[in-house]
Design a protein that fits this description.
This protein is an alpha+beta fold. Helices cover 57% and strands 19% of the residues. The strands form 3 sheets. It has a 5-stranded antiparallel beta sheet with strand order 2-1-5-4-3. A hairpin with a 2-residue loop joins strand 3 (122-128) and strand 4 (131-142). Helix 2 (10-60) runs antiparallel to helix 5 (157-207) and helix 9 packs antiparallel against helix 12 (430-440). The longest helix is centred in the N-terminal third of the chain and has 51 residues, at 10-60. Mean pLDDT is 87; it is low at 1-6. The protein binds adenosine-5'-diphosphate. Adenosine-5'-diphosphate is lined by residues 368-369, 372, 396, 398-399, 401, 409, 414-417, 421, 426-432, 455. Adenosine-5'-diphosphate binds at residues 368-369, 372, 396, 398-399, 401, 409, 414-417, 421, 426-432, 455.
């Protein structure tokens, strides 16, 4: 399934969650503030109404009996007593007086009335349609006994308007805050999406093979950091791509030369009517070229192996026996070249390395020391300990390496003297293999040389004494 089908914007999800959470918090605060505001208004009203109610109760405690006439007379004394409605009941909750006149003779079974008849003064408030409705009831005591109760209701449009205003203002503030949250969420979401979109576009361009493409970084957030990382990665890809194509073209070029020679030699054999000895000479040359190709292919394969799997199976191996083995292998070559081999091996020098790698390093260096030596020259291989290191030097008495070439001799396909190197079967790969192998196994290699006197290659590996390791 293509990624676009599965793609869901996590940033959109975060933005929506953020909006939803803030909305929920604001709704909660909205309700909470509204309720607290209402309660404050009710509390403020409660004292005034209970006081009024108590005043009426005290006045109604004066007459002998609670008759409608006596109640009306007592209430008439209280000029300041203003209420929307006032009901006076007897101890059985039957209305004796109702300012609205509707409830007289009926049972008033309101909770406030029932509680008041049990001796508890009670206040309740509610908010409806921009009005605050307050209900209040208090018992009338006479001679220590409850003889009835006063029930009052009051509609308060002023406090109702206050609560309404509070509600509107809280709602407006909530809406404004939520609008700000949404605006910020949309702003950051679109900005983030735009940036991600741009990065994705660049990634597609890079994916199509254009490693020179650079992703443009904006700001200094984590996306800018990511962009920086991507650009570093493409730089590396570009570098290794350039290395790869140079390697391929160098390798093709190197392979072309012996192939061209083989073609030339076979054409000559086919076209000329040559004698048997010349033909045998030509065939031997073809064999040599084929052998060179073979050697080069092997070296190319070694390089590919080093590049593709830099870390092999390392083990603790003494260098000394490997040097002796290589010496035995190269003795015939040295003899043929008139080069004397001299070994100064003081210590076995155990190191942590892949066995084949160690062999290849020593072989290539010693083979070069013979190849680029002079007849009657000497190749000295010296192995010694220096502090915690094993130091191997391969020193010849050959032509030496010019100073400007020393920086390049470890490059692939580099040869100081192409014609001499070719004549000795060189491919310019031996030292690059040595360099890569030494590095992969945690060592270092350096070269010093003097023209006309010879060259010395020094390889240093950290020692790995078994006792020390234990
Ligand atoms: P080649 O297969 O051509 O020998 P190398 O990578 O082994 O390739 O060496 C690279 C070049 O470095 C050689 O072509 C040669 O010119 C130079 N070189 C290497 N070793 C020596 C040496 N011991 N003395 C002089 N020149 C050397």
């Amino acid at each position: 399934m293509p990624i676009s089908h599965r793609y869901r914007s996590s940033q959109f999800l975060y933005a929506m969650t953020y909006v939803a959470v803030t909305l929920a918090a604001l709704i909660f605060l909205n309700i909470y503030c509204f309720e607290v505001g209402k309660r404050m208004v009710y509390r403020n009203k409660e004292y005034a109404l209970l006081e009024k109610c108590q005043l009426a109760c005290d006045e109604l405690a004066q007459p002998e009996a609670l008759t409608p006439a006596a109640i009306a007379q007592s209430l008439a004394q209280l000029e300041s007593l203003t209420a929307s409605r006032l009901i006076v009941t007897d101890s059985a909750a039957t209305a004796l007086y109702d300012s609205a006149g509707e409830a007289v003779g009926k049972h008033i079974l309101l909770p406030e009335v029932l509680l008041a008849l049990e001796g508890e003064s009670r206040f309740d408030g509610s908010y409806q349609n921009r009005y605050v409705l307050c209900r209040c009831a208090a018992p009338i005591y006479k001679g220590g006994a409850i003889v009835g109760c006063v029930y009052m209701t009051e509609y308060d449009p002023v406090r109702g308007a206050l609560i309404h205003g509070l509600r509107v203002h809280i709602f407006q503030i909530t809406a404004a805050l939520e609008a700000i949250v949404i605006a910020f969420s949309v702003f950051y979401y679109t900005r983030f999406s735009r940036k991600i979109g741009r990065i994705m576009d660049s990634m597609r361009i890079i994916q199509s093979g254009d490693y020179s493409h650079k992703v443009v970084a904006e700001g200094n957030d984590e996306l800018a950091l990511l962009v920086q990382e991507i650009n570093d990665l493409t730089d590396q890809l570009q570098l290794s791509e350039a290395k790869r194509s140079r390697f391929v073209s160098d390798a093709s070029h190197e392979i072309k030369t012996p192939l061209a020679s083989i073609k030339l030699l076979t054409d000559s054999i086919l076209q000329n009517d040559m004698d048997r000895d010349t033909m045998l000479e030509f065939v031997a040359d073809i064999g040599n070229e084929a052998e060179r190709l073979n050697r080069m292919t092997e070296k190319l394969l070694t390089l590919t192996r080093i590049d593709s799997q830099p870390g092999g199976e390392q083990e603790i191996i003494p260098i000394l026996p490997t040097v002796e083995r290589v010496q035995r292998m190269l003795s015939p070559t040295a003899q043929a070249a008139g080069v004397r081999l001299r070994l100064e091996l003081a210590d076995p020098c155990p190191i942590l390395i892949e066995e084949d790698d160690l062999h290849q390093i020593i072989f290539n260096l010693m083979e070069n020391g013979i190849k680029y030596n002079i007849r009657g020259g000497t190749l000295t291989v010296c192995l010694r300990r220096e502090a915690d290191n094993a130091v191997l030097t391969v020193e010849d008495t050959g032509l030496g390496i010019p100073e400007d070439a020393r920086a390049h001799i470890f490059d692939r396909f580099y040869r100081v003297d192409k014609s001499r190197s070719r004549s000795t079967g060189g491919s310019g790969l031996g030292l690059s293999i040595v360099h890569a192998l030494v590095q992969n196994n945690g060592g270092t290699i350096t070269v010093s040389s003097e023209i006309g006197k010879g060259s010395r290659f020094t390889v240093i590996f950290p020692l790995f004494d078994t006792e020390a390791a234990l």
